[in-house]
Structures are given as C-alpha cells and as structure tokens.
Amino acid sequence: MAVTDEAIEKIKGMIVSGALRPGDRLPKESELAAELGLSRNSLREAVRALSLIRILDVRQGDGTYVTSLDPQLLLEALSFVVDFHRDDTVLEFLAVRRILEPAATAMAASRVSEQQLNALSAQLDKLGDNPSVEELVACDLDFHRGIVQSSGNSVLCSLLDGLSGPTTRARIWRGLTQEDAVSRTLHEHRMILAALRDRDAEAARSWATVHIASVEQWLRASL
C-alpha cells in the first residue's frame, strides 16, 4: 500500500472508531504523524486528499478539523465525478434515477406536509400551460428536488441531486424535438402531485416511474 493510502486509512480508522468525531480538531501535524507512525509528508498528502472529498476541513492559521460528515457535504464529491460523464452514459444515469426517484416519491407521500404540497402546486401554477423548454426543465429540477427532500432521507436526496445534472441536457433536447414533451411533462407533474395529495404512495411511485421512463424511452429511440 502506498504511504499516502496508508495515511488515509489510518485517519479514516480514527474517525470510524470515534477517536475523532465530527467537528474535532486534529492533533498537530508532528504529534499525529508520530502517533500514527507516518512521515509528515505522507500525512500532509492524506489530509489534502481527505479535504478534497470533504472529510477534513483545513483552516489556514487555525488547524485541520473533521467536517460535519453530513451526507450532503460528503456526496458533493459524487457531483464532481458525475460532471465528467460521457454522453453515451446518460441512459445509465436515467436508469439509476428510475430506480431511486420513484422510491423517494413514494416515501414522500406519507411525509410531505400540506405546506410543501401547496408550494409544489404554486410552482406548477406559476409555470403555466405553455412554458419555454428552459423554464420547464428548471421547474422540473426544482419540482423533483422538493419532492425528494420531503422523503426525509438526506442521503437519497443528495444522491439524486448529484445524478440530475447529466440528464438536464437530454431533457432540454427532448423538449425541443419531441412534439408533446412539454404538455406530457406538465401532465405527469400534476398526476404525481395529485397522488401525493391523496397520500397514495403506490400511485406516486408509478407516476414518477412513468415520468422518468418516458424521457429514457425517448432518448433510447433517438440515439
């Protein structure tokens, strides 16, 4: 194992074991290197790597701290990786969304508040019946993000937020080239919202599946 990898594993072990907790400040570099049996250089490289993926927070002049380890913070690294997707993997991202998002929508059916439902409804009303493709896609992102947040699962929310980026261009392309894409999307949004208002988890799951699958099917046929 490379020395930097060994250093990363040792710091990770301290966090997993509870020796270092969220918000804790790491010991001084010289002390920590001696405690872990590492060179200061390998420790420095490990800290740099762990700060890139939001495990550690290096504060100039103040020291290095363990972050909150909040899922949304940690999964920012996923969003960074996802940005490097190739166009030929968009269908794979849609397939993952089709697995996860209907489940999140079903979870939201029993947890979404009336206030949240009214906000989603107002969002659709504001969009109107004849929005531009760009307005529709922006609303689509916000609409689904609001529903997933209502599921109460921060990990699921962060995962789906990170996965939504690669499919944005495909949704715009569909809106520009498929004749009924805008009206179909608006209808599917209304049906998802109606199922959530009825607290019908299975109907919400089904409409979310239909909604994502329709984009996937169109893209598969267009490639």
Automatic annotation (TrEMBL):
User: Which InterPro entries does the UniProt record give?
Assistant: GntR_C, TF_FadR/GntR_C, Tscrpt_reg_HTH_GntR, WH-like_DNA-bd_sf, WH_DNA-bd_sf
State one Pfam family annotation.
Answer: GntR
Indicate whether Transcription regulation appears among the record's keywords: yes
Superkingdom of the organism of origin: Bacteria
Q: What is this protein called?
A: FadR/GntR family transcriptional regulator
Q: Which residues form a coiled coil?
A: none
Q: Which UniProt keywords apply?
A: DNA-binding, Transcription, Transcription regulation
Domain called HTH gntR-type: residue spans: 1-69
